[in-house]
Amino acid sequence: MIANLSRFIERRTPLWEEYEALLSRLEQDVALRLALDELQRLRYLHESVAGDLSRIQSVSSDPPSEQYLESLLARGFGYVHDGRRRSKGLSWLKAPLCFAQVFRANLRLFLLVFASLLLGATFGGIAVTLDPGVKEVFLPFPHLLGDPSQRVAMEEEQTSSVKGLEQTFAAQLMTHNIRVSILCMVLGFLGGVFTLVLVFYNGVILGAICVDYILAGESRFLAGWLLPHGSVEIPAILFSAMAGLVLARALLFRQGRLSLRGRFRRIRGTVVTLISGVAVFLVWAGIIESFFSQYHEPTLPYTVKILFGLTQLILLIAFLCFSPPPKEELP
Predict the structure, then answer these.
(1) Could you tell me the CA-to-CA distances from 276 to 63, 193, 254, 308 in Å, in that order?
(2) Which residue, 251, 245, 252, 280, is CA-closest to 264?
(3) For position 172, what pLDDT does the model report?
(4) What is the rounded distance in angstroms from the CA atom of residue 304 to the CA atom of residue 297?
């Protein structure tokens, strides 16, 4: 019998958090082998959580605590009862599926980030339409401040503006974009507002550039220039902002009886999965931008570049929306 439910939950929470931390270790490292004492502790914690859930349900209704304990037991059931052996060679297969699953689980946060980007792009596009002079305020890149047609003509006269410097240029792009992504995520500790502001600002830049080139009649160049790498780079920045909002949500909103430390521990796997995927995407985007996007007609037809970018974007969307969830045991 539980005389004081709140006191019971407060007393038992450290044990629940210990169980959750052990499960997180197992979920994040599919090759992890627990020592005998850790296996015994895992079984003890699982049985204790099951007992606590039964006691809470028998006394009164506390939906947040019940849901939390039920989720822990569901996560831990396989580790405690099926005794399966995991293969080290399968972790790399599971990681992409985990990323897609995490994305879908936090889809609302992505839509919020995407809306912020669209709002910024709309603002930047309208501003440039009304007053082309605002480019000097919005655009931080000197080579984008001039006339788009003149730049296109200059780019098409040479094979590539970075020919012979592709490796250095790719490294600079990766470093810059990863820095921006980390900033997007870390700003989540300030409540997520500045994360959205940063996404909005990048949307303003994107919208201003696009409208500037469209008004100058350089839509094909624009699509051929931005789509190959932008179809990966822009989503990656949005994913990093998602990670920032995940942090902000854990910071600002209580989840049942979990302490702040417990809430951050719960989202650790989500944040690590998102930011790891972002790093991979940005490395790929840097390679594409340096070795592919910077080559224009007549060296590389715009149609080829546009089709490449669209195909890449479609495959990314299909992967995020339709890939199966990771199985506990892969064949």
Answers:
(1) 33, 23, 26, 24
(2) 251
(3) 79
(4) 10
145: helix, strand or coil: coil
Q: Cβ distance 220 to 302 under 8 Å?
A: yes
Q: What is the DSSP letter of 188?
A: G
SS3 257: coil
Handedness of CA 47, 52, 55, 57 (dihedral sign): negative
Question: What is the per-residue pLDDT across 152-174, written as a single tens digit (0 to 9) for each?
Answer: 888 888 766 666 666 776 777 78
pTM greater than 0.85 (yes/no):
no
Q: Residues 87, 166: contact at Cβ < 8 Å?
A: no
Q: How far apart are CA 27 and CA 292, in angstroms?
A: 37
Which residues neighbour 34 within 8 Å (Cβ) at sequence distance 6 or greater? 26, 42
Alpha-carbon Rg for the chain, nearest whole angstrom, is 25
SS3 content of the chain, % helix, strand, coil (to 5): 80, 0, 20
- Give strand pairing partners of 190: none
Rounded-to-integer distance, Cα 304 and Cα 284, Å: 18
Q: How high is the pLDDT of residue 202?
A: 92
The first and second tokens of residue 163, run together, are 């020919």
d(CA 109, CA 241) in angstroms, rounded, equals 9
Residue 177: both structure tokens together: 């974009």
Tell me which amino acid residue 67 is: Q
- Single-letter amino acid, residue 161: S
Decide: residue 109, CB within 10 A, 0-12 exposed, 13-18 middle, 19+ buried: buried
Q: Is 192 left (phi over 0), alpha (psi -120 to 50) or beta?
A: left
Give the residues of the chain that fall short of pLDDT 70: 1-3, 30-31, 59-62, 81-93, 143, 159-166, 169, 255-258, 325-331
CB 144 within 8 A of CB 135: yes
User: Are the C-beta atoms of 240 and 278 separated by less than 8 Å?
Assistant: yes
